[in-house]
Amino acid sequence: MRDATPKGTYKVQALDRAFAVLDLLGESEVPLGLAQVATSLGLHKSTAHRFLMVLERHHMVERTTTGKFRLGLRLFDFGSRAIEQYDLRDRAQPHLRKLVMETEETAHLCILEQAHVIYLDKIEPMRSVRMITRVGASNPVHCTSVGKAILAFLPEERIADVIRRTRFERFTHRTIATPEAFRAEIEKTRRRGYAIDDEELEEGLRCIAVPVLDAQRQPVAAVSVSGPSFRVTAQKLPAIANHLLQCVRGISMDMGFIKAARLQRSNLSA
């Protein structure tokens, strides 16, 4: 009986370290060597090697031709299954389809993961110019309307943590490139009630997004409408924002977030 707690503690610690390895590789833009992993996590090389070997055996991690490590494709499979099982996606689909019919542009449903947004769903209209995005992919928060929409309604400590993790990479000449400018944009989004990506991720692409709020008025996701800037014009944004608010209100009600739905109805009428 005396050995049960230490063994249990060790197993939990081992799991924590394994997930720390996965987090480290996931946040890195390039594959990492054994020494880099060990140093970053404060582990002995032999310990880091042992964790990497176990993760590699289960295809959670794979080795490059140069002997460095990166995330394995099995994680993509897990991610795809998680998205398929995500109740929010199923409940949102009818509302997303209605939104696409109303706006005749592409709709996305996204969630926040660290300093990136993950695309849970995408519905396209029957038009010639379409969005090159895929379900399961991710993009940084600082240059996406969905990222700004979610952050605008998060508690300050969460916002600060996300900004700390964000690499303010420039994708176009319009991309927000500093934490100060990003904070100003978040505040503008909060006052306005919706977020805009004005050709910040891709030239010629404009997006507008609204968060899906739970009963405590915390964002659980965001919905966006995206299209070429010659169709999604500045003049159309208020009308699209109204359609988005109706959409997320419907999702909130179907998810049981009645209080949030009433709050967003109040914002719309204001």
Overall description:
The structure is a single chain. This protein is an alpha+beta fold and 270 residues long. It folds into two domains: 4-76, Arc Repressor Mutant, subunit A (Orthogonal Bundle), CATH 1.10.10; 86-269, Beta-Lactamase (2-Layer Sandwich). Helix content is 50%, strand content 18%. The protein has ten helices and eight strands. The protein has helices at residues 4-27, 34-41, 45-57, 73-85, 87-103, 145-151, 156-165, 179-192, 237-254, 258-269; strands spanning 61-63, 69-71, 106-113, 116-123, 138-140, 195-198, 205-213, 219-228. A six-stranded antiparallel beta sheet has the order 5-4-3-8-7-6, with helices on both faces. A two-stranded antiparallel sheet has the order 1-2. A hairpin with a 5-residue loop joins strand 7 (205-213) and strand 8 (219-228). Helix 1 crosses helix 3 (45-57) and helix 5 (87-103) runs antiparallel to helix 9 (237-254). The chain starts with a helix and ends with a helix.
- Provide the low-confidence segments as ranges: 1-5
| Annotation, overall tally of beta strands | 8
What CATH calls the topology of the largest domain is Beta-Lactamase
Determine the N-to-C terminus distance: 63 Å
Q: Provide the gyration radius in Å.
A: 21 Å
CATH architecture of the largest domain: 2-Layer Sandwich
Report the helical percentage: 40-55%
SSE-based structural type: alpha+beta
